[in-house]
């Protein structure tokens, strides 16, 4: 069980040992495998985007190896994935639903798997994927090496994890002088903002000096789509990432964000889980997170790998009790956020927003190509299911919208430091049989 703060190298923490353990087709001993051409390692992740990202990271690490890495996720056509498995796969990276679909159809064979990785383990085990995970683990040999990684590993999740592992070692990577759960490179600012004033406040935050790529988190798909439209109508280059978008639209938004064609990504929690994009300077919680674990995962999108970042959280009146619990659990010391409006002087000073900034981006500063400049691929395939396997359609973050009506919110600023993520690795160890 590996646990560490966000942005500390979790993917390669398990990826390098997996690559070292797997025998590639051109390596000695490959022909002696009981199941050559079948997967030797299975990496299970909660979302499609995270699956693609981890697979890409592994390919980068294995660019001088002949190891075959196949990614399996829903929302796209089955045929290319079936063809890839038929050609041969050494490492399979995938989401539970599509993995089970291919397993039941006889296209995915797990009898040769010697290493299993559950990434974002608290999400996989704590938020509804446990039956799928159990189904997959029941089909891999008992004699295996099992690794679980996540930013947070509460007691109940650890207890569940122990059901799948024999005498697991819990490795926690932490600076002995840093006892906080949140990353100390992240400046945390908390405001109480009226719902009708949030778009006005965000429109000014997005014009702060030094702001780079920004991720805005919403609780619901509808809120994410509406906010994307509102900000787009105000001149900002925005992409959306949520479950009502088809896989092609989600990948289009992520590519545009990574390539700089848009610099604002509005996302729901599950869709953005684990997404690692360089140079995210700001994270904005448009709505208060459900609990401290989600808060940690959200703000962990910035301040990664030693870089600094800013996390701003909006707290509605009704969410004040929930926020108080989060603040207490993380030791932030901000139980009562300061009331903040788009005209509040402290908003401008806290976040270095130029005086006189309005709620619309000046035309002279609208220099990014925008979401439409990124190709929208037709990936075919099914409509999404609950894990991240697509859902057809393409609800967007484009133009059209309702500009920010609103008056005042309230807010307060607070600076917390530190954020948590998962990152622990378990090096190689014995290849067969160590669990």
TrEMBL record:
CDD domains per UniProt: DEADc, SF2_C_DEAD
EC id: 3.6.4.13
Cellular component aspect of the GO annotation: cytosol; ribosome
Top-level taxon in the UniProt lineage: Bacteria
Region (Disordered): 347-435
BP GO annotations: response to cold
Residue ranges crossing the lipid bilayer per the database entry: none
Residues annotated as domain Helicase C-terminal: 200-346
Listed Pfam families: DEAD (PF00270), Helicase_C (PF00271)
Name of the top EC class for this enzyme: hydrolase
Keyword annotations: ATP-binding, Helicase, Hydrolase, Nucleotide-binding
A GO molecular-function annotation: hydrolase activity
Family: Belongs to the DEAD box helicase family.
This protein's name: RNA helicase
Organism expressing this protein natively: Actinomyces bouchesdurhonensis
High-level lineage: Bacteria, Bacillati, Actinomycetota, Actinomycetes, Actinomycetales
